[in-house]
Amino acid sequence: MNVVDPTGPADPAAESPDPSDPDDVAQRLRDTAEELQLVVSLMVRHLRMASAGSGVTLGQVSVLKRLDREGPRTITDLARAEKIRPQSLNATVGALRAGGYVERAAHPTDGRRKVITLTDRGRRLVAERQEAGRGRLADLMARRLAPAEQRTVAAAVPLLRRLAEA
Length: 166
Hints:
The structure is a single chain. With about 170 residues, the chain is mainly alpha-helical. It contains 6 helices and 3 strands. It has a 3-stranded antiparallel beta sheet with strand order 1-3-2. A hairpin with a 7-residue loop joins strand 2 and strand 3. The longest helix has 29 residues. The mean pLDDT is about 85.
């Protein structure tokens, strides 16, 4: 004998979201965005723990890594790439200069502008931070994810990069 729960819907399929309903799609995207926000925060914590004690903020490390990947850049170019205001980036670069991680040099074609360049100390810090972060995340994936799940994460990375660079 089938008993129907009077507090729930008579049709269990009525609870399933309709993939063609714009409202259901919008809700699913909001739910996914909320979960992704939480996951990114937790991942940032793991990366911070992997490189705690260097005295360099994640924002500063982001600038150092960009300079390492892309080479010398002006404040304007860096600010645009980092999606922050040039004034904010000036403060970041000032702290990095004070720590000996970057230096300013004359722009090769425009004497009014300065180019920010990594120092040897900055390159060493980037290498250390990247290795610490990679090591921690690789260890977590190896211990917590099955091989098929590891492949799923690897396949998702380019999609996440597209979102991050939007």
